[in-house]
Amino acid sequence: MNRQRPFIGFIIAGAIAVLAIAIAGFYWFFPKNPASLIAPNSQPGATIFVSKLSPVIVSLLTNPDNLQAFEREGELSKLKTSFLAKSGIDYQQDIKPWLGNEITLAITTLDIDRDPENGQQPGYLLALATKEPEKTREFVELLFSKRALAGANLNVEEYKGIKLISDNQQAIAENKIPNPQSTIQNNLAGAVVGQGFVLFANDPKVLREAINNVQAPDLNLTSSFEYQKATKELAKGSIGVAFLNLPIVAKWQGLELAEQTYDSEIISLLLKPKGLVAETAFLSSSEIASPSPPLTKPVGALQYIPSSAGLAIAGSNLSNLSNSNVAKLWKQTTATIYGSQEDVVSQLLKPLGDAQKRWGINLPKDVFSWVEGEYAIGLLPQEQTNPHWIFVAEKSEGVEQGVARLDAIASSNGLTISPLNIDNQKIYAWTELSTASKKANDKNRASFTIETKVRGAHTNLGNYEIFTSDLETMDEIFTAKENSLINNPKFQDSIAALPKSSEGYIYLDWTKSQDLLERQIPILKLAEVLGKPFFNNLRSLTVSSYGTNTEALKGGVFFQLNNS
């Protein structure tokens, strides 16, 4: 049962504004020198208002007007205008004079009144840094006076020396028909706290608890051991930061995780000459597996992935994938987001997952177990639903036996192992024979033709074994050797933005893979709506895990944009 909509006209719009400014707005920086935009604060100051039990806190550590100086088509101005459209507030006149260098949005509690009987209502807190407290107080008075004129019932109280203003405004959810079931609560509470911040929340209780957190430091996020540990991994020069308390995020989603390796995550947003890097660290309270030996140069197997690939994954030693830190993180993440704990392969590479079901194989056991050297996986988007795929494995001990086992599995599934040549290169195709009847001839006897369908193919090139979903893809590998992904300038720029010492890459060409990803991850459509300028100009993104210790898994995502 939903008792109210949290902060309908303000907090939700505030969340969109903060995230859109922190993501979509970054597009406009890149023609300039990233050094010209430096965050005055290395960490958000509003954490003193936020409980240790907060699941999520997101902060922009620079004034939005610093971002606007880099825009071309007024996207941020449009965002602010849209955000304030129904409030009667003018940004230039009412907010700009006092707004400082931090905007923080936090979910402070999973249920404001902690009463499960009447439904769960999270507490939302928006903290804006102020450089002119008196002008900020004038803004708060103006905001609530306009809401009172619109029909809100105002309440003013003093709590521990701080003036709190709140209202309770009834709103009709749909149509303007006075139906009690369609009436929602549009609550807003605000207060200027000290000389540094103005706070807004969806309930006065949230503001009272925020004030308590300041006056009792042991309660706030700043004093949290997990948060202090996470901030040590915070990248220098970040202009945005997010912190997630992963067990509480899971609880928020109503999940009990069977396996929980990581306790918290911190994300830093950094500007680079050719794009934006979101650097993240997942932290554990217990020791995690020792890191794999890092790669010091691009994976050679990528030379057999055509530049037409929409998605490519490269690294080394798949034999230990199921026990790796990345796999454990993936299990925990998919369980938190989707409420399931399907294996890493079936979620990340659905076409390969479909293949293993069709052929009756287990990828970790029948394939990955013998890949101890380099590997590369590529998906080539096609008009049809399932893209073509490529799998490349460096030769090592056990590879020959592994390939023979796959041939045996294919044979046991009724496929024929057919040797043939393409460009003088011997390959082995897994083929399926079927018959098709034609019209009866003059003697009333039906005639049949035999059709051959290729279900997969493999060959040996240099020091690598190569598997493909079909002959056309295999032929593209042979005819496009100089046009491989490893020679693609976009890919080279992407990996250049990340540390050279890494455990591998996931490279995504957004324009080629957008449709495929939207089918796999429907929430992306919502993200695209909120960050339209960003997604409209996104060329590619590259994910890399580039360093672990026994307590943290670090990595980053590089976003390359059209004008970079």
Structural overview:
With 564 residues, the protein is α+β, with helices and mostly antiparallel strands. It is 29% helix and 30% strand. The protein is built from 18 helices and 20 strands. It has helices spanning 11-23, 64-68, 75-83, 91-95, 133-149, 204-215, 225-231, 246-252, 325-338, 344-348, 350-359, 363-367, 399-412, 471-479, 489-496, 510-520, 523-530, 532-536, and strands at residues 56-60, 99-109, 123-130, 153-159, 162-172, 183-193, 197-201, 240-245, 264-272, 275-283, 311-316, 374-380, 388-394, 416-422, 425-437, 448-461, 464-468, 504-509, 538-548, 552-561. The protein has a 20-stranded antiparallel β-sheet, with helices on both faces. A hairpin with a 2-residue loop joins strand 16 and strand 17 (464-468). Helix 1 packs antiparallel against helix 3. The two termini are 48 Å apart. Residues 1-37, 170-184 and 337-345 have low confidence and may be disordered.
